[in-house]
Amino acid sequence: MYILCFMEKKTSPITKIVLEEIERDCLCLQVRKTARMVTQWYDACLQPSGLRSTQFNLLVAIGLAQTVPLTRLADVLVLDRTTLARNLKPLESQGLVVVEPGEDKRVRLISLTDRGYQLLEQSLPYWRKAQGQVMARLGQSQWDALHADLRILGAQVPGAGS
């Protein structure tokens, strides 16, 4: 027995022109695509260290704070607590970070271990390579303008900082 299926061409109230406009002009899409490209570059440069750029940046944030509550670290990195906790697990299992209860047992405090500081230091040349090559392509004035624009954009997003 043969079953023959006919697929009708679906008509949509959204025209191709509208979809192309979204693809071309959507700030969220453009920022996310660019962020993925930049992340892939930094990941490739950091690869010899065994860290991904997300892990490197997490270690940097913890190193700056020294000992930080998970909720505060999530705010600093603009991550939800569940995602942050998931991202911390491999770093904790590798002995790079310690997650301990605070005085208030509901609070979890995050800090780098000596091994975490060592890996961060060993990773710096790889990060410097990634940063240096991007900076060389952008040039200082374009970097300064982009940096300022990113700060302005972040401050203008509804709900930012709340």
Can you summarize the main beta sheet?
3 strands, antiparallel
What is the CATH architecture annotation of the domain at 27-138? Orthogonal Bundle
Distance between the termini: 62 Å
Q: CATH homologous superfamily of the domain at 27-138?
A: Winged helix-like DNA-binding domain superfamily/Winged helix DNA-binding domain
| Class by SSE composition | mainly alpha
Number of helices: 7
Question: How much β-strand is present in the residues?
Answer: 5-15%
User: Spatial order of the strands in the main sheet?
Assistant: 1-3-2
The CATH topology of the domain at 27-138 is given as Arc Repressor Mutant, subunit A
Number of strands: 3
| Poorly predicted spans | none
Overall shape: globular
SSE order: HHHEHHEEHH
CATH structural class of the domain at 27-138: Mainly Alpha
Radius of gyration, in Å, reads 21 Å
Helix content range: 55-70%
User: Mean of residue pLDDT?
Assistant: 90
Structure description:
The structure is a single chain. The chain is mainly α. The protein has a domain at 27-138: Arc Repressor Mutant, subunit A, CATH 1.10.10. Helices cover 65% and strands 8% of the residues. It is built from 7 helices and 3 strands, in the order αααβααββαα. It has a 3-stranded antiparallel beta sheet with strand order 1-3-2. Strand 2 (97-101) and strand 3 (108-112) form a beta hairpin. It is globular. The mean pLDDT is 90.
Quickly describe the structure.
The protein is mainly alpha-helical. Helices cover 65% and strands 8% of the residues.
